[in-house]
Amino acid sequence: MVNTIILILLGFSLSQAQLEYRIHNRGMLQETEFNDGTIGRPWQTGEAGNRATTPVMEWPPYSAAIVKGIEYSGQHNILGAGMYMAANLDGKPGKDNRIYALCGGVGASSPEKVVGVWSFPISMEEIDNYPVLPNGDLNPDYNPDEAEQIIIAKWATPLGVTVTRTSRQWSYPDYDDFIIYEYELDYNGDTDGDPSTIEQTTTLKDFMALFIYGFAPSMYGYQRVYQTWKYNGGIYRGDQNTFWDADYWLAFNLDLRTNLRDEWAKPEPDFDLFKYQAETGYLGGGLLSPQAPGYCILYYDTTHLAIVDPNNPQRNESEAVNILRTVAGEYFEIDEHGHIKQPWSNKVSTGNTRSSKMKDMSINPDNRWSGVYSEGSTTWPEVPSPRWYGRAAFNYRQSVDAGQKHTVFGPYTLHHGDKLYYSIAEVIGYGAQAGKRVEGGPAVNGVLHQWNRLPSWDRPVVFNGKKYTEMGYLTEYGYPDYVNSSVHNVQQVAEKAFEAYLGHKPTIPVWPEDNPRHGVYTIPIPPPAPAITIENTPKAEVRIQWGPQVEKFDVPRLTDKVDHYNVYRSVMGMGPWKLLASIPVGKMQGDHYEFLDTDQKFKIGETRYYAVTSVDANGNESGKTNLTKHQKNVGSVEKLSKVYVVPNPFVLRSGYTGSGEVAKKIGFYKLPRRCTIRIFSYAGQLVQTIEHNDPIYSTEWFQMTRNGQDIASGIYFYVVTTPGGDQTSGKFIVIK
Questions:
Q1: Which of 215, 221, 245, 383 could link 288 by a cystine bridge, Cβ 3.0 to 4.6 Å?
Q2: Is the CB of residue 212 less than 8 Å from the CB of residue 105?
């Protein structure tokens, strides 16, 4: 569905009407994509950032909730995200002549304007490569070597570089916790979003590209504990740390404290609710911020990197030569090709990304803010690959409260017509790889250490001095069921992202520059979930039906054919899911499968979520891609007979009718799916016509005439007709 921005909700104005967004909603991680470079939402750290109207790196999805009468937006995990670029025109060196394009991820308490300043949206397209069509048939155009959902955003910039960002997502349980972004940066000279005119062809010097996220796991945890998710005075209180796992080129955050106490992952502050949620999995369990949101670098371009030669000005192409330092007489920042080793910078900082700050510190060749690794300059837990020497170091000293994380590549020299390519995976897991030594983390006894072991979420929970568990949390309660496969932590998710991109398992440690420019995407495919229909029956039961089409699904790398179907129900879209039935292949009702939910505890008027998955003989299960919200009611009758009006007589002061609009409600019951109800006065005047087109037993009328007036006391007649010519009639009395 095409959505346009609601300006009031986003809190900033637009100079061009073509700014659009689409939502990645195929997997367990849901995200909003804009065609100005923004990911999640325009960057916000203030009070206005306390709400999410669309997914903001939401995991699990459909996580909005009402707890003790308070509405919570749900499990959203970033302040915003985007990408920056900067360069100088050849012959115009220096920071004063630098041209910038801050495409999303820029602002402080409120977002800064991007469109018309640094970004000029061009187009937005969603491609749904689903294996099953809405009617249940197999999709003849399904491509097993592509993602199931693809979103392509395109925008121009003042540098004359047009960006095409292609993002990909899958529903397969091992591969549904990440989104892969492929960026193409094309120096085509378009500086205003009108590709029919070329404004710039001068060579770009010291071109740099930056990718930025503002992590904060998660909105629900902070709101539940502090009733705020803003950065200053909220997230920025010593509760979270950022980490860098060089094995995967992975940056991620963890919530390690609550009010500077060792109360990690935000346990539910109400003890009784904690126990209930932990035991049932309701609202994701007893830990409210167990998420480890992050991103990893899958590929970066080494073509067009600028030659940096401090000894030969004629060969040197970059002002970066001015900041090179020597160790033992060698320039460790320069590789054998005369290029700066990548990344240029690998930095964490506060959540403030105002443009004046970011232009000064991030994407200029006059300062390499995070420093570099060099032999003997750091204490490694084990001998690393010498390939890291000369590359940007992780500035671990700023890892506490680091809401902002960015990685910079460059400098490059771009001639008109040149292109650059990058690939990044947005990843999220239930905590991190416990016990692994990585960079970042909290101070120990007031001393910051570069290397720390990652904590486990499987440990006793103590909150506000009260012991919540006897054993480790995961030992006692296990993972919530939105962690729907053996892929649990963020490192495992990152490895699966590399596997999807490469088409095979990665070799650890990974070296993105060795990877292909574009993803391969040849991954195992489980049998897809069927399309389902849900209806209420005249006996107030819920009927779920689906066809057998997915049993003929046959593609390369299929894990196996469908063996049986699992039918699930949940109170919330995020789960926990109750398995209602497993139905073997072939056990059909005629030409279709059917399950009848006869649970009398599920009351009329209540809402539940249903899903049917396909499972092969090896236990591989599809995603819940047919998740459907359903309100229980009495189903419509097959054939029109007697229709009843309730209450009859209607007496305003009977005590039956309640207050407000409800006080005027009259119900017509025992209706077929389609019919027309005509209401007449005692004198035969037509008072109102009601068109009923709904597979439920009844419809409501609030005593309003065709002219919008309340009806008076009296006797009224009704006539109900169907398109097939059936008819019934009756009368009712209104006393006011």
A1: 221
A2: yes
- How far apart (Å, rounded) are the C-alpha atoms in residues 86 and 319? 14
Q: Residue written as tokens 């995407």?
A: 521
Task: Give the 3-state secondary structure of residue 702.
Answer: coil
pLDDT tens-digit series, residues 80-111: 999 999 999 999 999 999 999 999 999 999 99
Per domain, the residue ranges of the chain are: 3-477, 532-631, 644-735
- What DSSP element (H or E) covers 10? helix 7-10
If you write DSSP's letter for every residue of 450-481 in order, what string do you get? SEEEPPPS-S--EETTEE--SS-HHHHH---T
Kindly state which CATH superfamily the domain 532-631 is placed in: Immunoglobulins (2.60.40.10)
Q: Is 70 exceeded by the pLDDT of residue 365? A: yes
Nearest to 629 by CA among 485, 529, 530, 532: 532
CA 661 vs CA 563, 658, 702: distances in Å: 51, 9, 7
Residue the block writes with tokens 């909005």: 64
- Residues 142, 68 contacting (CB under 8 angstroms): no
644-735 has the same fold as 532-631: yes
Q: Which fold has domain 644-735?
A: Immunoglobulin-like (2.60.40)
Q: What percent of the chain has pLDDT over 90?
A: 75
Query: What is the C-alpha to C-alpha distance for residues 530 and 566, in angstroms, rounded to an integer?
Result: 11
Strands 607-616 and 628-631 turn out to be antiparallel
What digits encode the pLDDT tens for the residues 211-220? 999 999 999 9
Q: Tokens 């006391």 correspond to what residue?
A: 713
Going by C-alpha positions, the residue among 398, 392, 410, 375 that lies closest to residue 86 is 410
b/e for 509-532, b at 16 or more Cβ within 10 A? Answer: ebebeebeeebebbbebbbbbbbb
Location of structure tokens 């229980």: 632
Average pLDDT of span 557-566: 98
Give the count of alpha carbons within 13 A of 410, CB side only: 31
- Quickly tell me which residue has 């008076």 as its tokens: 712
Q: How many Cα atoms sit within 13 Å of 642 on the Cβ side?
A: 3
Q: Could you tell me the pTM of the whole model?
A: 0.88
**298: which residues sit within 8 A by CB, 6+ positions away?**
180, 423, 424, 425, 497, 498, 501, 512, 515, 519
